[in-house]
Design a protein that fits this description.
By secondary structure, the protein is of the alpha+beta class. It contains 5 helices and 6 strands; from the N terminus they run H-H-E-H-E-H-E-E-E-E-H. The chain has one domain. The protein is globular. The termini are far apart.
């Protein structure tokens, strides 16, 4: 009887740990619909998903980094635009830089409102860019890095 109780207890602990881990990954993008895009398309064919963690994140002063690269963004574009619009419409975007051509969004930089993490406020950014042949990249970054650090990192090459 004791063994059965121990097994049941371990299963319960395991389920709670899995739930907690899943909850923490979505917590980084709280209130943002783009979080659904990363979960929905990370295993999609012709989409490359990257999530950084550990020392790589710390070396860039980030606490979260996720990106999706769409080989052909056209089938996903409407949903991406809706998610970006949601961030703007809910006043989560504090700074916007967009490049539009013929009414189409080609690139976007959004600095979002800061959020508390472990007693500190951290910056959040969404980056979006459509390149040649409708290849597109969507990036979510969070951490203490400021705007200048992010720009230096992006244009360093």
């Amino acid at each position: 009887m004791k063994t059965r109780n121990i097994i049941a207890y371990r299963r319960l602990v395991g389920i709670l740990l899995l739930t907690l881990c899943f909850g923490l990954s979505t917590y980084a993008q709280e209130g943002l619909q783009i979080a659904t895009l990363f979960e929905k398309y990370k295993n999609e064919k012709n989409v490359t998903y990257v999530e950084l963690n550990g020392s790589i994140l710390r070396s860039y002063r980030m606490t979260a980094y996720k990106s999706l690269v769409f080989e052909e963004v056209t089938p996903y574009k409407k949903e991406i635009m809706q998610c970006l619009k949601q961030a703007i419409d809910t006043y989560q975007v504090q700074k916007t830089q967009e490049v539009n051509e013929s009414g189409e969004l080609l690139s976007a930089y959004y600095r979002l409102s800061r959020v508390p993490r472990k007693g500190k406020k951290v910056n959040r950014y969404i980056l979006y860019k459509v390149g040649k042949q409708h290849k597109a990249t969507l990036v979510y970054i969070e951490g203490p890095l400021d705007e200048d650090e992010l720009m230096e990192m992006l244009y360093k090459q």
